[in-house]
Every structure is written in structure tokens, then in C-alpha cells.
Amino acid sequence: MLRLLNLELQKLLLNRTSKTLIFVSFVLPLFIILLSSFKIPFFGYFTLELGELGVFNFPMIWHLVTYFAAHFKLFFAIVVVSMIGNEYSNKTIKQNLIDGLSKKEFILSKFYTIVFFSLVSTIIIFILSLCIGLYYSSYNEFNIIIRETEFLLAYFVKLVAFFSLCLFLGMLVKRSAFALAFLFILFILEWIFYGIIWKFSTEDIATNIQNFFPLKSIYKLIDVPFLRIAATKMPDNQEFIHDYAVHWHEFAIVIGWTILFILLSYRLLKKRDL
Amino acid sequence: MLLIYNLVTKYTEYRHTLITNLVDFFQHKKPHILEPILTINNLTKKFGYLTAVKDLSFTINKGNVYGILGPNGSGKSTTLGVVLNVVNKTHGDFKWFDGQTTTHDALKKVGAIIERPNFYPYMTATQNLKLVCKIKGVDYSKVEEKLEIVGLLERKDSKFRTYSLGMKQRLAIASALLNDPEILILDEPTNGLDPQGIHQIREIIKQIAEKGTTILLASHLLDEVEKVCSHVVVLRKGVKLYSGRVDEMTSSHGFFELKCNNQSELIKLLEKNTSFKSIKEKDGLISAFLNEPIKSEDFNKYLFENNIILTHLVQRKESLEEQFLQLTDNK
């Protein structure tokens, strides 16, 4: 396993473009710290000062930071599709196999890399949230700090699943640019299907079905935290009471997709003549 | 006297080797103990409607230099692709060594370059070779040793994309040699190179062959195969036409190249003679193909007795090229 990871890391880190993108995808989330100093004026009614709002309190901070940081996954997604695209365009995938790498090992080396970088990213986010939290939070008891850390697990699973999808798209179309285009098409398709289902049934059914779609299920893993922030401001307002927790069935759907993407990528490579 | 004595001994020696060779041939004896490296049985590969390789079988034994000959699109690369785990077979099977190891593990004991050299353009030669070391499980110390063999040691820290095609191809050979392979597979190694590059590659191949490494060389360049190979498999449209030793490829008795002042008389005479199967005239040069062995002095005498005086007489065997064209055209 280490051998395969080592192999892929060499391929990535010696490439200037992917090295830069990896760096960016890890460094940009650090700017979430900036959020803490923002003051957002709300049409003159009141000023939202996030730091003062209590959003950086434990355990809320886990939710907030993982939600925002997850958006930076797109940078590493480019790395994932290009690491497949480059293997095809340089024909090095062929040479790797001839040199004695099995097709299974090839896919696994990519998958391990995805898991590795997702793990690194999760650890960075963990440390980042911990620091911001300890600085701003009114509660510093250990029990409160570790509450809702399942958001970190959700963040990790979310990254692995999303990159696995990119890996599969990369294997499918062999070209990085096309793979990213496919990702966008998939996003649109999911909403089109949502619209179709809504037209023939109710919004609730449509949403429930859409929650099973790959991109939506990955997105849904960590819910949008804005209403929750609002709820802390107005705890009595019933409209803002939502279910924000990470659920095991959401995990199950996303992990299911991950396994499917990896297996499909392997099957695709196995069937293909290079 | 001494001269005659020398000639006689030379002749007896020659006859001796000839006879032993013949005996070996008829008893199917081979000089080495047969140790198969690659066995292919009834291999078929179809791309949709197109059959690229059809029911192909042959065995590659240790210690020989094999050539796969065939025009472009005859299934050479496809066959190699199948045994190298990058193309899926349709029917049939193949096994590496004794058939006990999986293909990808067997490939760690094989060195292969196919078509064009495939490396990561942004890595240096050393970095690229180290990556191959990681895949094959070879020690890094081999990297410099093999770069030296192909003469790239000075450029080892240059990025691959800055290399010329000849250098790329030599790097590919270095990469294929990293694991000291039991068999080296080369697919069109001199394709697209300039004469100097071709010469360098051939010299390297010869050196490797001299060390006793088994080599499988796919090519459409006949002189290349003729110069280095002892055995040959000839393919056309995915079908095997011939497999065996290069020197036994045809049972032809060769032909005479003739010129004289009275060409038409000569042709008439030759056409009557049953020893010749065909007569061709081209640019004033008559080629007469033999049905049975005739010595040139007897033939000359025979013509002289029939009042034909030659101005030009050469007895030749077909080159591999002519044999190859005969094989691939006539069927």
C-alpha cells in the first residue's frame, strides 16, 4: 500500500502544476480565519459580526468550517482528473502496466492518494477549527469541544467520495478538461431530474429522491449552516429549526457511491484496450 | 602443397558442421535445453469486426533472439500488447515462464518497450527510471548503471521532454533493462530515428544479445531482423505464415543473374530447361530461379555448349526481404 502511495506521490509532487494546485487546495481553506474578522452589514438593520455572533463556538464551529472548507475541494478535483488525463495523454498508463503494475494496483494507487490527501485535508481543518474555536469560543470544556466532531468524519467521507467521482469521470473520458465538463453536466442533470420528478409528484418526494443522486448526496452530507447561525440569533423562531446533524444513512449513500465509482473505474480499465 | 592442405582441412571442417547441422535439423535437436519463456496458444484478438490476430501459436525459448516480422497492421503490436497486459485477448491463452505467476508479476522479469517511449515529460531521466524501479521492485543503484549502457549518464538530470527522439528511445531501453530482464521485448525500436540513432540502438541491442539475454524484436525492417535474429515469426493480417529459424525460412535453391549479348536466345533456352521454375527479365538483367541445385560452373558450361557466352553470371540466394515478400504476397 505504501509502495502504491509512494508511486503516485512521486508522479504528483514532481509535476509543478499539480504541486501548485495541491498547495492551493490546502492553503486556501486557512483563509476561513478571515471570516472571523468580517463584519457583514445587513441593510442597516443590524451588523453581523461573525466572531461576536457565537458561530465560532464549539461545537458549531465544526459544522461551519467543514462546510466552507469543503468548497475548496474543487482545486484538488482538478488534480485528480488531470492525474488520470496525464496518464492517458502521456501513455504512461500503458508503460506502467507493461512495467508490471497490475490494473488493480493502478486504480488502488490513485485511490490511496485520494484517501491520503483527504486525510491530510481533514487534519488541517481539524487543527484550524480547533485554533479558531479555542480563540473565540465561550465554551472550552473538553466534552463540548469533542461534540459534533462527526462533521470532520463527514468532511473526510465527502472529500473521498467527490474525488472518487472525479477519478471515475477521468477514467471514463480520459481527458481532464472533458472530465470536469462532465462533472458540470452531471450537476445540471441532477437538477433537471429533480425538476422532472417535482413536476410529476411533490417537492418532498423530489428532494428525497434527489438526496440519493451522487453530487447531491455528497453535498447533503454537511448541511448549509446559515439557518443554524440565524437560529442562534433568534432561538425562538420555529422556521429555523432544522435537522442539521450528519446521519448514518447519508454516510451509507455516499460510501455506496464511492465504492461504486472505484469498482466502475477498475472495470473500465480492465475492459479497455490501451 | 600447404595451400591445398589448408583448403582440404577447411572443406572437411565445413562439411562436418554442415552435416551436424543437418542431423540436428532432422532430429529437431536444439543446441540449448528448451526453457520456454513465453508460450502463446491459439491466440485471437478481434477489434469489432476486424480480426487483428488470428489463432496464433508460438513459443519463445530462452537464449534465442526472435523476430516478429510483418507489414504494418499485421498484428505484431497487438500480439505484444496482449502478452504485455495492455490489450485484452478474445480467445486463446498465453503463459509466461512456467505459467505459475500472474501476468503482472511475470512482467516484472520482462523488459519491454512498445512503439514510442512513454515517460513523464516533467520528470528527469533519473526520476523516471526511479519510478520504474518502484514499480518493478528494483534497487535504485541500477539507474546509473543502465543509463551508462545507453550513454545517457551526462543528461540524467535533464527533463524527459527536452530529449531528442533517439535519446528518448535509448532511455526506454535503459528502463527496460533496469530489472536485468529474462527477456527484452522491442517493438519497432528504430522507428522514426535518424541513421545515427538507428545505428546506436542496433549496437545496444547487439551488446545485450551477446550477453545471452533473450530478445523478441518486432519489426517491419527486414535487414534489422536479418542482422540480429536467429528465429523469426512471420505474420500477415494476423495469421502466422512462418515460424522457425531465419536461415530455414525458404527451401529455395536461389537464382542466377545473367547477362549476355543474345538475351532472347538465352531466355528461349532457359524456358526449355526444367531446372528453372521461372525466368524474369528486368533492366537487361535476366533472373532465373532454380528448381534444383545447380553449380554455377556446370551451368556456365551448359550454356557455353549451347553457344551462349555470358557477360555476367552471379549465383544468389534470395535475401530475407525477397523471401519475406514472397511469403507475404503469394498467399
Briefly, what is this?
The complex is a heterodimer of chains A (274) and B (331). With 274 residues, chain A is mainly α.
Order of helices and strands of chain A: HHHEEHHHHHHHHHHHH
Number of strands of chain B: 13
Name of the CATH class of the largest domain in chain B:
Alpha Beta
Portion in beta strands of chain B:
25-35%
Shape category of chain A: globular
Kindly provide the radius of gyration of chain A, computed on alpha-carbon positions and rounded to a whole number of angstroms.
21 Å
User: Largest beta sheet of chain A, briefly?
Assistant: 2 strands, antiparallel
Mean pLDDT of chain B, nearest integer? 83
Supply the helix-strand structural class of chain A.
Answer: mainly alpha
Keywords (chain A): Membrane, Transmembrane, Transmembrane helix
Organism (chain A): Wocania arenilitoris
GO molecular function (chain A): ABC-type transporter activity
Protein name (chain A): ABC transporter permease
